[in-house]
Amino acid sequence: MRDLGGTIALGELVVHRMGFGAMRLTGPGVFGPPPDRAEARRVLKRAVELGVDFIDTADSYGPYVSEEIVADALHPYPEGLVIATKAGYERSGPHLWTVNGHPAHLRAACEGSLRCLRVERIDLFQLHRIDPDVPEDDQFGLLDDLRREGKIRLIGLSEVGVPALKRACRVLPIVSVQNRYNVANRAWEGVVDYCEREGIAFIPWYPLGAGLLESGGALDRVARQRRATPMQVALAWLLARSRVMLPIPGTSRVSHLEENVAAVAIQLDADAMAELETLRVTV
Hints:
The chain is an alpha/beta fold. It has helices at 37-49, 65-74, 103-117, 136-148, 162-171, 189-198, 218-225, 230-241, 254-261, 270-276; strands at 7-10, 13-16, 20-21, 54-56, 82-87, 89-90, 98-99, 122-127, 152-158, 174-178, 201-202.
């Protein structure tokens, strides 16, 4: 099996550091079925062939469409494949996301994900957002209940700052954090550093946000020097940024998937990293 950027521990599980995000295997606005379901299935199968052993999805992607396609394409799952899903949103239409962290909703979402993924226990169950209208203890308590009941194995959080992460870690064994982060948007830099100190996996969503940058900048220069694409360099930067980084670039095309996975072979020296430090978001 290929060495995809080395490995990282998720609790007692170990996966390669280049994963796959399955959000794009849905319709426009992350709602409904994808335009080409057969290609979506091919993408997932090819990802596993390339050595990807961590797939990230969520009940809200579709809703449930992404999870169903993951199961259609890969079940029965190959040994060692870790599937992570998330709960904490309701969907009423394309681009519409409503936070819901009520315990009853989270439990129902977990049950739905178990059915869609065709598993008896979810490898990694992540709280998509901490609902500010629901006591944190209620949300964290429900996650702990699901773990003790054997319905989920590991617990992660999404879009959290260090204070909330610390509060969660006091009562839950948190193994991962999934925040928006990329070479162009480093608002959660402090969370990355905290996760590295504590040995918590950091899963950057929107990892290819380098598309926000103006062309002709540092990213393009570094890419030309390495005969790579700017997006490949953006992924290579994430892998070099921290040993706990677990990028999950998503796509609905096999060709794009193969390009993303090839980024693990790109080496960035100190000069390249210093040049990329100059990047800034342009929107």
